[in-house]
Amino acid sequence: MRRIIGIVSGKGGVGKTTITINLAAALMQFSKNVIAVDTDLRMSGLGLQLGMYNFPVTLNDVLKKETNLLEALYIHSSGLRIIPASLCIEDIDTSGLENIFKDPFLENSIVLVDTPPGLGKQMIEILQACNEIILVITPEFPAIADAMKLISAIEKTESRLLGIIVNKYRKGDPDQITIKEIEFACNLPIIGVISEDRHIRKSIFRRVPNVFLNPNSSSSIAFKKIAADLTGLIYNPPKVGFFKKFWRREK
Length: 251
Ligand SMILES: Nc1ncnc2c1ncn2[C@@H]1O[C@H](COP(=O)(O)OP(=O)(O)OP(=O)(O)O)[C@@H](O)[C@H]1O
Ligand SMILES: [Mg+2]
Prior knowledge:
Order of helices and strands: EHEHHEEHEHEHEHEHHHH
Number of strands: 8
Helix content: 25-40%
CATH class: Alpha Beta
Strand order of the largest sheet: 3-4-2-5-1-6-7-8
Shape: globular
Structural class: alpha/beta
CATH superfamily: P-loop containing nucleotide triphosphate hydrolases
CATH architecture: 3-Layer(aba) Sandwich
Bound molecules: adenosine-5'-triphosphate, magnesium ion
Radius of gyration: 18 Å
Strand content: 15-25%
CATH topology: Rossmann fold
Number of domains: 1
Number of helices: 11
């Protein structure tokens, strides 16, 4: 069995690429066979966030039927497996994506699909190629308004909407939309909340998934909880004592 899980958002910059990478890293830690695929064919960022450039073969070439999926697979120094896209401006036909994801090579894998923002024709084809979808929202009005447009488009496909990951949440900050309000507005379950975490920015600078670099940071723990829930496993986060919590907050 294979799972093709799209990580999507209406608004850009909400953290899809960051979530794809760290959720893949968390699934790897649970010994899952996982591959992160970049379908943002114009502004691809998955490889860049991992410090990987100059790919001789990418998903773009697979879509153009010039090569097969295995040729476009790369392994990051952390062991994370990715299929990148090219940084190019040419128009690429994505109608073949659904068939590409049927490749026997992906059997028994969890494929996390990083997607472009928005709702064009290409995005609809990407949504149709996924069998499950996770919506990423930041706690602000524009992100929620765009998400609501996307939800109605997803509901017209056969993909299953698993729920929402709220990203860049600032605990205790009243100047943001609450988790309950997001849940109510979108009428979908919240499957995870990732805090705005300076470790994430640092990990991108270091080009290593934060789940590997800072496994006990709040965001890494949240990614591992989501990964466990997605795969029906139990994850017991490490206990953080009062002084450590206080120290973290002070830092
Ligand atoms: N939880 C977080 N805490 C702190 N910074 C974050 C968090 N999530 C993402 N970021 C930062 O937000 C920026 C945008 O993230 P990312 O590129 O993953 O978004 P995206 O949705 O993939 O963007 P695009 O729509 O352009 O593809 C990055 O600089 C990343 O470091
Ligand atoms: Mg991105």
